[in-house]
Write a structure and sequence with these properties.
Helix content is about 35%, strand content about 15%. It contains 20 helices and 18 strands. The chain has about 650 residues and is an alpha/beta fold. An 8-stranded mixed β-sheet has the order 7-14-13-12-11-10-8-9, sandwiched between helices. It has a 4-stranded antiparallel β-sheet with strand order 2-3-1-4. The chain starts with a strand and ends in a 35-residue tail after the last strand.
Length: about 650
């Protein structure tokens, strides 16, 4: 026998010139075993190795999985006749049939077929993976099928499935047949996600606990500390409440129930009912927690791009390319690298260089239309690199040139009537893991805008792709794979992809259970609270809520300030909300921060920027602070710049 590192289809194509060589076993996508008596298999191995194909002899001294077994068929059936099969308690998957099999079928005839026919190991493994099995243990003196099984799992794309990647393990190895090797395998299984019954493993020898290692010379643990014990269960939360009642802790009880210590029983009892209802609601809401995770995408063969592709960049990027500044290599090479990748993928590339002045929707649509009409083949896609230009727009400095052009591009592409998918390229917009550098706020803005465009223009939108610093041959192939229509190959299309060294990553939304983590549920305002947009309808509701829960001072900031409708009644409302001193309420315009600080310095009002314990925001504005303001740039609006100035500035 011989093992060949090729697929069964490739091996069968080679067997035509080697008479009598047959496939004995198919162990994986690139793991096939062949059989033939005599020296021809040895010659086949030598020929394959000489041609750069992995192959090696498998030393066996008996016939199996070939026509040779038919010579002893009657002898085998007679020897196995006493076998009395019965229905098993553990599901049985057969490498003879390639699927699940009832135990009652395992008679003498089955075991003869098991020795005579081709081993369909890969087909059986794919069936198990398709049913959601992810842990595979080969209990043998030396595992030999783990490699093929791992190949099959990777080829099936289990790393991106809901069940997660497959874990393939053995128990012992050649030359390592003792208890130490078996316990090490148990540890590998635990690291992969299996949980052995450690009480049974260490039943006769209770293990000694060993301190986890620390960083050298730092005495600081490498491992994250365990989360504090949570009070997630009904019993523990109830215990906390009854402890507060029995211990006579009014402050803790009032905080848990959201009431004041001096409130009468008629107020406390309804609060108890609300507390119980809220606790049930929180349990449901906590089960809805999700987080974004980046999963490595399978390395499928790169499909061929067709037609023409428009590649858009800005004049700033082109000038940098011409100057050839080494420190600006990322932006200098992006357009050239992408053009080269598209051409290698089979596309005809049409390059367009845009200026900031071409952010007008009509002007940009005309340029796109002219480029499409001049193409010899239909335009199939558009790859935009303009988002990499982070210069301030000359007319609207709060918006980057790339963001403005990207917005106009989405609109203009629809005006042209082109049936081409639009892709935006960014760099550093997302982080797939700790090896990535810091995320760029300007590039992240494009991803947020791009997701909005995907919802509004589903038939026009292609996706977002975050580029690495440079596109080598492998990265270029991954870019073409991302831009191509995967749906044709029966695979789900990826529209949010991050290309990194060695792999492409897809964006996934995964469950993030709260587990046993303790979560603060209540907050009581103290000191001074600053509310921006505070004199509007929402601000009034927030102000009342804060006052009723103990806020001692409120500073309401809005564009109109004291001139806003309603401030004449604010002080009366303040009394109605349970606060007696009307001097504890202030209405200010954004530019009145200096006056507020002066009052704080004079002792007439606690400092809302230093000693204040709360900040609130309403109507889409943000609280300011000493170091400066927070800007709000609504680049998604049709009239850019109409509100692109600062909505709120802090201390001036």
């Amino acid at each position: 026998m011989a093992w060949v590192g090729l697929s069964v289809g490739e091996v069968e194509g080679l067997l035509g010139g080697w008479g009598g060589v047959v496939v004995a076993a198919v162990n994986g996508p690139c793991s096939t075993v062949v059989f033939r008596w005599g020296g021809e298999v040895r010659e086949l191995v030598g020929s394959l190795v000489g041609g750069g194909v992995g192959a090696r002899l498998v030393e066996v001294d008996y016939a199996s999985h070939s026509v040779q077994v038919e010579r002893i068929r009657e002898e085998l059936l007679a020897a196995l006749a006493p076998v009395a099969p019965r229905r098993g308690e553990v599901p049985f998957y057969s490498t003879v049939t390639g699927g699940r099999l009832d135990g009652e079928a395992l008679d003498a005839g089955y075991w003869y077929r098991n020795l005579r026919e081709t081993v369909r190991f890969e087909e059986t493994a794919r069936g198990l993976l398709g049913e959601g099995f992810r842990f595979f243990v080969e209990p043998s003196p030396h595992p030999v099928l783990g490699f093929g099984l791992q190949q099959t799992a990777e080829d099936a794309g289990t790393a991106d499935s809901a069940q997660g990647p497959a874990v393939v393990l053995g128990t012992l190895r050649r030359g390592e047949g003792g208890l130490d090797r078996f316990l090490l395998s148990l540890g590998e299984a635990y690291a992969g996600g299996l949980v052995p019954d450690w009480d049974r493993v260490f039943a006769d020898c209770p293990p000694d606990r060993v301190a986890l290692p620390t960083y050298p010379f730092q005495r600081r643990s490498y491992w994250l500390p365990d989360a504090p014990a949570a009070t997630a269960t009904d019993a523990s939360e109830d215990d906390g409440l009854w402890q507060a009642l029995g211990g006579g802790d009014p402050e803790r009880l009032s905080e848990d129930l959201g009431v004041r210590a001096e409130d009468p029983l008629s107020t406390v009892l309804p609060a108890l009912v609300r507390w119980r209802e809220q606790r049930s609601e929180h349990a449901v809401l906590d089960s809805w927690r999700y987080r974004v995770q980046w999963r490595r995408l399978p390395e499928e063969a790169a499909p061929t791009l067709s037609g023409a592709w428009l590649l858009l960049s800005t004049e700033q990027q082109e000038r940098r390319e011409q100057r050839g500044q080494q420190e600006q290599r990322d932006e200098r090479d992006s357009a050239d690298d992408c053009a080269r990748a598209l051409e290698q993928g089979g596309a005809t590339v049409l390059r367009l260089v845009l200026t900031a002045a071409e952010g007008d929707r009509a002007v940009l649509a005309e340029r796109l239309r002219e480029a499409a009409e001049g193409a010899a083949v239909p335009v199939r896609g558009v790859l935009s690199l303009v988002g990499l230009d982070e210069r301030p727009h000359p007319d609207h400095p709060a918006v980057a040139v790339g963001a403005a052009l990207s917005l106009a591009l989405v609109q203009a592409l629809g005006d042209t009537g082109l049936e081409a998918r639009l892709w935006w390229a960014t760099r550093g917009a997302v982080s797939t893991g700790p090896d990535d550098g810091p995320v760029s706020a300007a590039q992240s803005l494009l991803w947020g805008l791009g997701r909005c465009a995907a919802l509004e223009y589903p038939t026009r939108w292609g996706g977002l792709v975050d580029l690495p610093p440079g596109l080598d041959r492998d990265a270029s192939a991954r870019l073409c794979r991302t831009l191509a229509d995967h749906a044709r190959a029966g695979l789900p299309a990826e529209d949010q992809v991050a290309l990194r060294a060695g792999a492409a990553h897809g964006r996934r939304l995964v469950r993030a259970p709260l587990g046993t983590a303790a979560v603060p549920r209540h907050w009581r305002p103290r000191g001074t609270v600053l509310i921006t947009g505070g004199t509007g309808g929402i601000g009034a509701q927030i102000a009342r809520w804060l006052a009723e829960r103990g806020a001692e001072h409120l500073v309401l900031v809005s564009r109109a300030g004291p001139d806003a409708p309603g401030p004449d009644n604010w002080h009366a409302n303040w009394k109605g909300w349970g606060q007696g001193d009307p001097g504890r309420l202030r209405c200010r315009r954004p530019g009145g921060a200096a006056r507020t600080q002066a009052e704080c310095g004079a002792g007439r009002l606690p400092d809302p920027f230093g000693a204040a314990r709360g900040r609130s925001r309403s109507a889409g504005s943000a609280a300011g602070h000493r170091s400066g303001g927070v800007r709000r740039n609504p680049v998604c609006q049709g009239r850019r710049g109409s509100q692109s100035g600062p909505a709120v500035r802090g201390a001036e």
